[in-house]
Every structure is written in structure tokens, then in C-alpha cells.
Specification:
The protein has a domain at about 55-190: Tetracycline Repressor, domain 2, CATH 1.10.357.10. It is about 70% helix and about 0% strand. The protein has helices spanning about 5-25, 35-40, 45-50, 55-80, 85-90, 95-100, 105-115, 120-140, 150-170, 170-190. The mean pLDDT is about 90. InterPro entries: Homeodomain-like_sf (IPR009057), HTH_TetR (IPR001647), Tet_transcr_reg_TetR-rel_C_sf (IPR036271).
């Protein structure tokens, strides 16, 4: 039975959504096309009608994953508009986020994998990382000429690294300590300047 253009596009979006989660759980090379398509409720034969290659899907899925992460940040800051930075720290450096392998930050889940991928995948990550930096720079910068970009880079590196390390160990106490130490470190960094309110203030 022939699939309509509308249904074909819906199927394509479903595959991208599913791949964005399964890649975060298994890595780009940790899951094959057959299982990706099965996860989307489709056959492997439908794949090449929708994507040029697995790398093409990886790039689309990476973009979707970074967009999903940006929505998580937006939701956190909307819930705490008077302390957007604190809200992001609270959810990002949490044991809940540590456990969200399919839905958590794609930079944490796939950062080292992305470094081995092609330029399209890296471009998707770069765009998302730049959005992170723009948000953080607005919160931890000041009006006195300090380079907020450098501070934002240090904060993001600390946050991502802490979640990576917290996931890499079996000891739950040690895992929590990585997250708590990072949270305290980035809070101290923000206290050296006046944290700016969210965009809706």
C-alpha cells in the first residue's frame, strides 16, 4: 500500500524522535538501523526512502535532541523566572538527570561519540552548545566588561563533565558528590557577578 506524503513525513518525524532517544541511550554505533526502525514501528526497508544514510539520520536526531534539551532548559527557567540559573543547575546537576539516559542532555550522552562523527552531526551539536552558552552568558555575565562567554564555557564544561562522571561510576554516593561539587562550584562562579534574571523579567 502506498504511503501518502503526509504519512511519510509523519513517519520520518517519528523516526527522528525515536532515534534522538535511542542514540542517547546506546550511542551512534551502539544500535543498528533495524532496531532504530523497529523502535519507530517501521520496517528497515522504509529507511532509505526517508534518509540518505545513517549519518543523515544521526544529524537530524542530534538536532532534535539538542532542541529537546533547549526546551528542558526553557521549562526550568519558566518555573523559576527569578533564578533561572539556579533552576537549570537544580535540574541539570540532579540524580534524576543522571538517570535519564534516553531523555537527558545529548552533550553528556553523545559528546564523545559526536567527536567521531561527520561535520553534519558536529554542526547540530555546535548549534545546540552555542545556545547553551548564550543562555549561560546572559545569566552569569556582568555589565563591567567581564568576558561572560569564557565564564559560560567554564560553567557548561563543569556541568557536562560532572554528569558524565556521575554516570561513569557505580558508587551512588560518589555519583552524588560529583553533582553536588559541580553545583557548588558553578554557584560560586555566578556569585562573583550579579546573575541576570530570565528574559521575561
Amino acid at each position: 500500500m502506498r504511503v501518502s506524503r503526509i504519512q511519510a513525513e509523519q513517519n520520518r518525524q517519528t523516526v527522528i524522535d525515536v532515534a534522538s532517544r535511542l542514540f542517547r541511550e546506546h550511542g551512534f554505533d551502539g544500535i543498528g538501523l533495524k532496531d532504530l526502525m523497529k523502535g519507530a514501528g517501521l520496517t528497515q526497508g522504509a529507511f532509505y526512502k526517508q534518509f540518505a544514510s545513517k549519518e543523515d539520520l544521526a544529524a537530524q536526531a542530534s538536532k532534535r535532541a539538542m532542541e529537546s534539551a533547549a526546551h528542558r532548559w526553557a521549562a526550568a527557567t519558566a518555573a523559576e523566572p527569578n533564578d533561572p540559573f539556579g533552576a537549570v543547575i537544580a535540574f541539570y546537576l540532579s540524580m534524576d538527570h543522571r538517570g535519564e539516559r534516553m531523555d537527558g542532555c545529548p552533550v553528556v550522552a553523545l559528546g564523545s561519540d559526536a567527536a567521531r562523527q561527520g561535520s553534519d552531526v558536529k554542526a547540530a551539536f555546535e548549534a545546540g552548545i552555542r545556545k547553551y552558552l548564550d543562555l549561560l552568558g546572559g545569566w552569569v555575565g556582568d555589565a563591567h566588561g567581564e568576558d561572560s562567554r569564557d565564564k559560560a564555557m567554564a560553567v557548561l564544561s563543569t556541568m557536562v563533565g560532572a554528569v558524565v562522571l556521575s554516570r561513569a561510576v557505580n558508587d551512588e554516593r560518589l555519583s552524588k558528590q560529583f553533582l553536588q561539587a559541580a553545583a557548588e562550584s558553578v554557584r560560586k562562579a555566578s556569585r562573583t557577578v550579579d546573575v541576570q534574571p530570565g528574559p521575561h523579567q
